[in-house]
Design brief:
It is a single chain. By secondary structure, the protein is α/β, with parallel strands linked by helices. It has four helices and five strands; from the N terminus they run E-H-E-H-E-H-E-H-E. The protein has one domain. The chain has a five-stranded parallel sheet with strand order 2-1-3-4-5, sandwiched between helices. The protein starts with a strand and ends with a strand.
C-alpha cells in the first residue's frame, strides 16, 4: 500500500514511514504546499496512492465527486483527532500497521478511518 500524506500531517510522519520501508509521499516534499484538496487527491490518484488526511468532511465529499466524475481514486484514509498531530511516531506506527494489513491498498473510492 502506498500513501500520500495531506498538508495537515507533518512530513516527519512520511519520513518515519519511509525509514520503516513504507512507500509514503507527502505534500511538503512533493511541492504541493498550498495546493487545494482536489489537486492533492488528483496527485495521489496519479501516483496510485491512498490519500491520508485529517480533513474528513472535504475528502469524503471529494470521494463522492471523483466517483460521480469517473475519476481515478485509490482510497482515502482519515486520521482521527484521537491521534495528536505532533505524535508523529504514533501516527506513523498506525499507518505502517494499516499498510501491512492492506497490502493491496484500499478498493477504489473507499474511505476508511485509521
Amino acid at each position: 500500500m502506498k500513501f500520500h500524506l495531506d498538508e495537515d500531517l507533518s512530513p516527519r510522519v512520511a519520513g518515519i514511514l519511509r525509514g520503516a520501508g513504507v512507500d509514503a509521499s507527502d505534500t511538503h516534499s512533493e511541492g504541493l504546499v498550498g495546493a487545494d484538496d482536489p489537486a492533492q487527491l488528483e496527485f495521489a490518484a496519479r501516483s496510485g496512492r491512498c490519500m491520508v488526511t485529517r480533513n474528513r468532511d472535504d475528502f469524503i465529499r471529494l470521494t463522492v465527486q471523483f466517483f460521480n466524475d469517473h475519476r481515478p481514486h485509490f482510497g482515502v484514509l482519515i486520521v482521527p483527532c484521537s491521534y495528536a498531530g505532533d505524535d508523529f511516531r504514533r501516527i506513523a506506527t498506525a499507518l505502517k500497521r494499516y499498510a501491512l494489513a492492506h497490502p493491496d491498498g484500499l478498493p477504489p473510492y473507499a474511505v476508511d478511518f485509521l
